[in-house]
Amino acid sequence: MVKKKRKAPLNKRLEALVEEMVSKGIQLPEAHNQLEKLFLERVMQASEGNQCRAAEKLDVHRNTLRRKLRGHGLI
After folding, report:
1. Could you tell me if residue 22 is inside a domain?
2. In Å, how far from its chain's centre is CA 35?
3. Measuring CA to CA, which residue among 74, 55, 75 is closest to residue 64?
4. CA pseudo-torsion sign 32, 35, 39, 40
5. What CATH number does residue 64 fall under?
6. Residue 6, domain member (yes or no)
7. Which of 12, 33, 62, 75 is a Cys-bridge partner for 8, taking CB atoms 3.0 to 4.6 Å apart?
8. Model confidence over 5-62: pLDDT tens digits?
9. What is the pLDDT, as a whole number, of residue 16?
10. Three-state SS string across 34-68, please?
11. Which DSSP letter does residue 72 get?
């Protein structure tokens, strides 16, 4: 019988990621920027490029989303 590999809980995976980033000297502004860009990319993919839907999923105003997308060079 093959055992399924279980994913670690989200908080444990985040802890490991933060530990790795700290050990590599990544500072908070850079970490925040990387996380936000990746998060925005994934939500836009899930929303099939529809900014209104993406803004709803993120619980931000559409204009705020557009500003963030522009700031990250995503539009």
Report:
1. no
2. 4
3. 55
4. positive
5. 1.10.10.60
6. no
7. 12
8. 677 788 999 999 999 999 999 999 999 999 999 999 999 999 999 999 999 999 999 9
9. 94
10. HHHHHHHHHHHHHCCCCHHHHHHHHCCCHHHHHHH
11. T
Radius of gyration of the chain (CA): 16
Instruction: With cut-offs at 50, 70 and 90, classify the pLDDT of residue 1.
Output: low
- Which residues, other chains included, contact 69 with Cβ-Cβ below 8 Å and sequence gap of 6+? 40, 44, 51, 75
* Domain carrying residue 46: 30-75
Decide if 65 contacts 58 (C-beta within 8 A): yes
Note whether residue 71 is domain-resident. Answer: yes
3-state secondary structure of 25: coil
Is 39:46 a contact under the CB 8 Å cutoff? no
**How far is it between the farthest Cα atoms of the chain?**
52
